Amino acid sequence: MLDWFSAGERYVLRMELTGTHTGSAFRTSIGEIPPTGRPVRASGLEVFTLDDDRIVDVWLGWDRAPIWDSLGARFP
């Protein structure tokens, strides 16, 4: 998590995913990508709504384009 803030009952987290593409193939809806050994990075937001200290709703928004790019995916 990079940072966060609250707005009323909502909490917004700005997050970043990083890693290295190793291990098994990365399966997607358009095919599989064999391990490349390359670094992978993506950023996103997650918004949680709380009610009496319980999470009652969640919204997720991640930019997946950098993941596809780092894995070598090319679109026409």
What order do the helices and strands come in, and which of them pair?
Layout: E1 3-7, E2 10-20, E3 26-28, E4 31-33, E5 39-51, E6 54-63, H1 65-70
Antiparallel strand pairs: 1-2, 2-5, 3-4, 5-6
**Can you count the helices?**
1
Q: Give the uncertain stretches in residue-range form.
A: none
Q: Determine the mean pLDDT.
A: 89
The tally of strands reads 6
Strand order of the largest sheet: 1-2-5-6
What sort of overall outline do the alpha carbons produce when their principal axes are compared?
elongated
Helix content: under 10%
Class based on secondary structure composition and strand pairing: mainly beta
Q: Helix and strand string, N-terminal first?
A: EEEEEEH
Largest sheet: 4 strands, antiparallel
Proportion of strand residues: over 45%
End-to-end CA span? 33 Å
Radius of gyration: 16 Å
